[in-house]
Write a structure and sequence with these properties.
By secondary structure, the chain is an alpha+beta fold. The chain is built from 26 helices and nine strands. The protein folds into four domains: 4-168, Neurolysin, domain 3, CATH 1.10.1370; 173-249, no CATH class; 251-324 and 536-676, Neurolysin, domain 3 (Orthogonal Bundle); 343-534, Neurolysin, domain 3 (Orthogonal Bundle), CATH 1.10.1370. The strands form three sheets. A five-stranded mixed beta sheet has the order 3-4-5-9-6, sandwiched between helices. Strands 1-2 form a two-stranded antiparallel sheet. The chain has a two-stranded antiparallel ribbon with strand order 7-8. Helix 16 (456-473) crosses helix 17 (495-501). It is globular. The chain starts with 18 loop residues before the first helix and ends with a helix.
Length: 676
C-alpha cells in the first residue's frame, strides 16, 4: 500500500496517515533531501537562485510538509503509537535541518549568487538566508560546529519532552465531585462534567484542568475549597510541587538543561547570551531595548493595576466577607465584582455566542473588509469535528484552511495557527501553489444537542488565530521563504492577529455574530454597553501579567546564570512587576510552553510589541469609519495590500509605514486599554 505521507499531489491525507507510515516516509524524504543537498553543493553546480530552488527547495519543502503533517497530528491527536513514531524520527529530522543550515558549501553557494539576478522578493529571501546561515553556525568549524549540531538535537528532544509532560500532566488530573460542591458553576459546564464522569463509568461530575472546565470553575464555583483544589493542581502541573504520582511529569530538569544549552549555543555563535541571538532577526534592536520597553509599559500600567487590586480587596471585604483572599479566590472575586459593577456576567454573554453564528459573523467581516468569499470545502480530516474552507477572490482560489475548534483528550491546550503549505510559484512545475493553514482552538463542545457556546474571550481567540491565518493565506508573494508569515520578524507577526481582535468589540460586528442559543435574538444593546464599559476591567492587572511573563523570559535568556535555580528570578520579576503575589507552591514556569517548547524563547515580549503596531493600525479604521460604524473599504484594501499581501517580502516597519504613512506610536494602545 502506498504511503500517504509521500503523496504531494494535493492536500495531506490526514484520514490515512498512521504511525507506521512515519519512519519509511521520513527515510525516503531525508534521502531525497540529502541527495539534493549533495547536488547543489557539488563542484560546477550553478550558483543561481532558480537552479538551487528547483533542486533543493523542492526536496526540503516536501520534507517540511510531510513532517508538518506528522507534527500536527502529534499536537491534535496524540496517541502512544504516534508519539513513539514522532520521537523516533525527531532526532533525524533535527539533524538534517541543523546540518543544512550550517553547511558551509551551501552557504558559499548562496554568497556566490549575483544580487543583480534576483527580483525584489528573492533579494529579501536571499538576505534572510545569509543571516540565517550565520545564526545556524555555518561559520563555525571543527569541534564547535559538531557541538552546535549536538545542541540542536538535544534541544529538540528536550522541548518535545517539556511539551509531552505539560500535556500528560494536564490530562492526568481528574477530580470527581458532587453536585453540591459545584454550586455556582454554569449549567452547561456542569452538564459537560456530568457527561465526562458517565463516559468514565463514574457517578457525579468529572472536573479537569482543560480550559473550558478549569476557568468557569475558578470564576463561578462558590466553594473556595474546590477552587483551591483545582488551582493547586493547575499551577503545580509538570513540577516538583505536583501531588504524589503526578510528580513524574516534573519539567524542572528539562528547563535547566534547555537554558544551559541555549546559552552555550549563544557563546558558540559569538554572542553574550541567547537574548542577543533571539533579537537578531526581529524588529527590536537589542535585549536592552526590549527590557526598557517592558519596564516603561509596566510603569504606565502600574497605577491602573494597583487601583484594580484595591477595588477587588474592598469588594471582597464589603460584599463577600472575604478579609484575606487567596490566589484561588481572585478570579471568583473578579467575576463577582464585574457582575456587580456592570450588571452582567460572562455566563449571560456566552448564551449569545453560539459557535456557528460567531463563525458566520467572522466570515462576513473578513469577506466585506478584504473583498474575498469564504465557502465550505472538502478535504480528508483527522477528526469528525474538523471543518475545511476555501477563500476565493473574483472566483479564483486564494487559500484554504482547516478549523479544529473543540478541546479533547490528546490535544494540546491553547490555540494556534500553523501552515500546511505556503504560497509559492513552484520551480519544479511552474504552477502557483496556494497556501493552506491550520486554525486550532480548544473550546467547549455543545451539550444536549445544542451548538457550542463560546465565551467572549473564546471569540477573541478565534479572531486572533484567524488574523494569523489571513496573513498566511492572503499573501500575494510568490517566493516561498518570504510568502505569508514566512520571513516576517517574529515581534511583528502578532500584528494581523491582534488587529482582528478589535472587531470583537464593535457593535455592528457583534450584531452580526450573535444569536441567543434559545431565542435566536441578537446581543441586546444594553448588554453590549455593559460589555464595553467592562472592556478595560482590570486592563492594568492584565498588562502587568503579560509584562511579568515577557520580562521573566527576557531576563532568563540574558542575565540569568543557567547553573542557578530559575525560581528566584521569577520571584524578583514578580516583586518588581506583579500587584498580586502567587503562593510559594505556584510553578507557572513549568508549563510556559511558549518559551520552552514553542518559538517564543526571549521573544514573549512580541505580544506586547506587536500590540502597539496592531492598536495603531486599527486606529486607521476608527479614523475612517462612517458615522454608522461601517468601515471604509479603501482603508481595508490599503491594509490588505500593505500588510497582509506583502507578507515577509520587506521589513515589517516598511509595511507598517506603507499603510499608516508613519512609524507606530504607543498612544492608541494606551487609549484602547483605558490607560491613556
Amino acid at each position: 500500500m502506498s504511503n500517504p505521507l509521500l503523496d504531494f499531489s494535493g492536500l495531506p491525507l490526514f484520514d490515512r496517515i498512521r504511525p507506521e507510515h512515519v519512519a519509511p516516509a521520513m527515510d525516503a524524504l531525508l534521502e531525497r533531501a540529502n541527495q539534493a543537498l549533495q547536488t547543489v553543493t557539488a563542484p560546477g553546480f550553478p550558483a543561481r537562485w532558480d537552479a538551487m530552488a528547483r533542486e533543493l527547495d523542492v526536496a526540503t519543502e516536501h520534507l517540511g510538509r510531510a513532517w508538518g503533517a506528522v507534527s500536527h497530528l502529534n499536537s491534535v491527536m496524540d496517541t502512544p503509537e504516534l508519539r513513539a513514531a514522532y520521537n523516533e524520527a525527531l532526532p533525524r529530522i533535527t539533524e538534517f535541518w541543523t546540518r543544512l543550515g550550517a553547511d558551509e558549501r551551501l552557504y558559499a553557494q548562496y554568497k556566490a549568487i549575483a544580487p543583480a539576478s534576483l527580483n525584489a522578493e528573492q533579494a529579501q529571501a536571499h538576505k534572510n538566508a545569509i543571516r540565517n546561515f550565520v545564526l545556524s553556525g555555518a561559520e563555525l568549524t571543527g569541534a564547535a560546529k559538531e557541538r552546535y549540531a549536538q545542541i540542536q538535537e538535544r534541544l529538540a528532544e528536550l522541548q518535545q519532552k517539556f511539551s509531552e509532560n505539560t500535556l500528560d500532566a494536564t490530562d492526568a488530573f481528574a477530580y470527581y465531585t458532587s453536585e453540591a460542591e459545584l454550586d455556582g458553576v454554569p449549567e452547561d459546564v456542569r452538564q459537560a462534567a456530568r457527561a465526562a464522569a458517565q463516559a468514565d463509568g463514574k457517578d457525579g461530575y468529572k472536573l479537569t484542568l482543560k480550559m473550558p472546565c478549569y476557568l468557569p470553575v475558578m470564576q463561578f464555583a462558590h466553594s473556595s475549597r474546590l477552587r483551591e483544589r483545582l488551582y493547586r493542581a493547575y499551577t503545580t502541573r509538570a513540577s516538583d510541587q505536583a501531588e504524589g504520582e503526578a510528580q513524574r511529569f516534573d519539567n524542572t530538569a528539562f528547563i535547566r538543561e534547555i537554558l544551559a544549552l541555549r546559552q552555550e549555543e549563544a557563546h558558540l555563535l559569538g554572542y553574550l547570551n541567547f537574548g542577543e541571538v533571539s533579537v537578531v532577526p526581529k524588529m527590536a534592536e537589542s535585549p536592552a531595548q526590549v527590557i526598557a520597553f517592558l519596564r516603561d509599559l509596566a510603569r504606565r500600567a502600574r497605577p491602573h493595576a494597583e487601583k484594580d487590586v484595591a477595588d477587588l480587596r474592598a469588594f471582597a471585604a464589603d460584599h463577600l466577607g472575604m478579609r484575606d483572599p487567596q490566589a484561588w479566590d481572585w478570579p471568583y472575586i473578579s467575576e463577582r465584582l464585574k457582575e456587580a459593577r456592570y450588571a452582567f456576567s460572562e455566563q449571560e454573554v456566552k448564551q449569545y455566542f453560539t459557535a456557528p453564528r460567531v463563525l458566520a459573523g467572522l466570515f462576513e467581516i473578513v469577506q466585506t473588509l478584504f473583498e474575498v468569499r469564504i465557502v465550505r470545502d472538502q478535504a480528508p480530516v483527522w477528526h469528525p469535528a474538523v471543518e475545511f474552507y476555501r477563500i476565493e477572490r473574483d472566483g479564483e482560489l486564494v487559500g484554504q484552511f482547516y478549523l479544529d475548534q473543540p478541546a479533547r483528550p490528546g490535544k494540546r491546550g491553547g490555540a494556534w495557527m500553523d501552515d500546511v503549505r505556503t504560497r509559492w510559484l513552484r520551480p519544479d512545475t511552474g504552477q502557483l501553489q496556494t497556501p493552506v493553514a491550520h486554525l486550532v482552538c480548544n473550546f467547549a463542545d455543545g451539550v444536549d444537542g445544542k451548538p457550542a457556546l463560546l465565551t467572549h474571550d473564546d471569540v477573541i481567540t478565534l479572531f486572533h488565530e484567524f488574523g494569523h491565518g489571513l496573513h498566511h493565506m492572503l499573501t500575494q508573494v510568490n517566493e516561498r521563504d518570504v510568502s505569508g508569515i514566512a520571513g516576517v520578524e517574529w515581534d511583528a507577526v502578532e500584528l494581523p492577529s491582534q488587529f482582528m481582535e478589535n472587531f470583537c468589540w464593535e457593535w455592528g460586528a457583534l450584531q452580526r455574530m450573535t444569536a441567543h442559543v434559545d431565542t435566536g435574538a441578537a446581543l441586546p444593546r444594553a448588554l453590549y454597553d455593559k460589555m464595553i464599559a467592562a472592556k478595560n476591567f482590570q486592563s492594568g492587572m492584565q498588562t502587568l501579567r503579560q509584562i511579568e511573563f515577557a520580562l521573566f523570559d527576557m531576563l532568563l535568556h540574558t542575565e540569568h546564570d543557567p547553573a542557578q535555580d530559575f525560581l528566584p528570578l521569577l520571584d524578583l520579576v514578580r516583586a518588581e512587576v506583579a500587584v498580586l503575589q502567587p503562593p510559594a507552591f505556584s510553578r507557572t514556569a513549568h508549563t510556559f510552553s511558549h518559551i520552552f517548547a514553542g518559538g517564543y524563547a526571549a521573544g514573549y515580549y512580541s505580544y506586547k510589541w506587536a500590540e502597539v503596531l496592531s492598536a495603531d493600525a486599527y486606529a486607521a479604521f476608527e479614523e475612517t469609519a462612517a458615522p454608522d460604524g461601517s468601515h471604509h473599504l479603501p482603508t481595508g484594501r490599503r491594509y490588505r495590500q500593505a500588510i497582509l499581501e506583502a507578507g515577509g517580502s520587506r521589513p515589517a516597519m516598511e509595511s507598517f509605514k506603507a499603510f499608516r504613512g508613519r512609524e507606530p506610536s504607543l498612544d492608541a494602545l494606551l487609549r484602547h486599554q483605558g490607560m491613556a
